[in-house]
């Protein structure tokens, strides 16, 4: 059976939290009888993440894509989408920072609520930054403000989103760094979008990949996307998100 959702999870040294994440994803989706496949794209993690993913694939509808080395988050996501079979494509982080409980709400907003794109959002009512220190909050909010002129999504830097397959069909994505979500939100072919609130939780295990190199990449990406936006001026319309019967509660 073709899955409704193909959810890509790029990994590098995420073995400590991957099993918990996969269990929570499928538990959240099964409450609404939603069919999905998870695609783990591993960049040859030395901590055994790829091997763990193969073990989990014996218990869940899970594909594993093994890459030769640390080739970058955005290209990992594109490689995952390339082998996806679902009508809806998605991406989320492997470090338990993205709340799997809102997956049914995001999917329902697309399949029943009229949105072509659904974004997990920290910057709408009901969302939040959890236990982030002040300097991470300032950095994040500055990045969001810089991206808002070319994209009406409140959380333009979110790495947690899903969308109809048609949104990227025939679209040349040119990501740099780890903001693949922003690339889809600006270059994608869609009119309607929604945001579903969640509270970001800083990683409980492993080491963050965020640093000065990624800040530079974001600035370069923003300049490229600004030129694209100036040439296209796409029309976007926000629609309310839809609460799934077995999804999250306020």
Key descriptive features of the protein:
single chain; 250 residues; Spore Coat Polysaccharide Biosynthesis Protein SpsA, Chain A; 8-stranded mixed sheet; 8 strands; 34% helix; 16% strand
Walk me through what this model shows.
This protein is an alpha/beta fold. The protein has one domain: Spore Coat Polysaccharide Biosynthesis Protein SpsA, Chain A. The chain has seven helices and eight strands; from the N terminus they run βαβαβαβαβαβαβαβ. The protein has an eight-stranded mixed sheet with strand order 3-2-1-4-6-5-7-8, with helices on both faces. Strand 2, helix 2 and strand 3 (62-66) form a beta-alpha-beta unit. Helix 1 packs parallel to helix 2 (49-56).
What is the second-level CATH architecture? Alpha-Beta Complex
Q: From the alpha-carbon coordinates, what is the Rg to the nearest angstrom?
A: 17 Å
Number of helices: 7
How far the N terminus sits from the C terminus, by CA atoms, comes to 33 Å
Calculate the mean pLDDT score and round it: 92
- Summarize the amount of helix as a percent range: 25-40%
The top-level CATH class is: Alpha Beta
Shape: globular
Characterize the main sheet: 8 strands, mixed
Strand order of the largest sheet: 3-2-1-4-6-5-7-8
Number of domains: 1
> Would you report the number of β strands?
8
Low-pLDDT sequence parts: none
CATH topology: Spore Coat Polysaccharide Biosynthesis Protein SpsA, Chain A
**Structural class given helices, strands, pairing?**
alpha/beta
The run of helices and strands is EHEHEHEHEHEHEHE
What is the percentage of strand-forming residues? 15-25%
């Amino acid at each position: 059976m073709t899955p409704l959702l193909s959810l890509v999870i790029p990994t590098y040294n995420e073995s400590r939290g991957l099993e918990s994440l996969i269990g929570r994803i499928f538990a959240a989706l099964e409450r609404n009888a939603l069919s999905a496949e998870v695609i783990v794209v591993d960049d040859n993690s030395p901590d055994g993440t790829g091997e763990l993913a193969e073990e989990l694939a014996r218990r869940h509808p899970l594909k594993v894509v093994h890459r030769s080395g640390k080739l970058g988050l955005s290209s990992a996501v594109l490689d995952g989408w390339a082998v996806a079979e679902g009508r809806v494509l998605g991406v989320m982080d492997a470090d338990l920072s993205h709340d799997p409980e809102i997956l049914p709400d995001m999917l329902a907003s697309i399949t029943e609520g009229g949105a072509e794109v659904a974004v997990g959002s920290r910057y709408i009512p009901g969302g939040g930054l959890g236990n982030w220190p002040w300097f991470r909050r300032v950095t994040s909010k500055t990045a969001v403000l810089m991206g808002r002129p070319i994209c009406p999504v409140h959380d333009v830097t979110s790495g947690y989103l899903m969308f109809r397959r048609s949104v990227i069909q025939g679209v040349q994505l040119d990501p740099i760094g780890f903001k693949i979500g922003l690339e889809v939100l600006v270059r994608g072919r869609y009119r309607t979008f929604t945001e579903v609130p969640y509270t970001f939780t800083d990683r409980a295990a492993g080491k963050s990949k965020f640093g000065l190199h990624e800040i530079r990449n974001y600035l370069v990406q923003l300049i490229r996307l600004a030129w694209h936006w100036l040439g296209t001026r796409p029309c976007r319309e926000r629609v309310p998100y839809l609460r799934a019967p077995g999804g999250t509660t306020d």
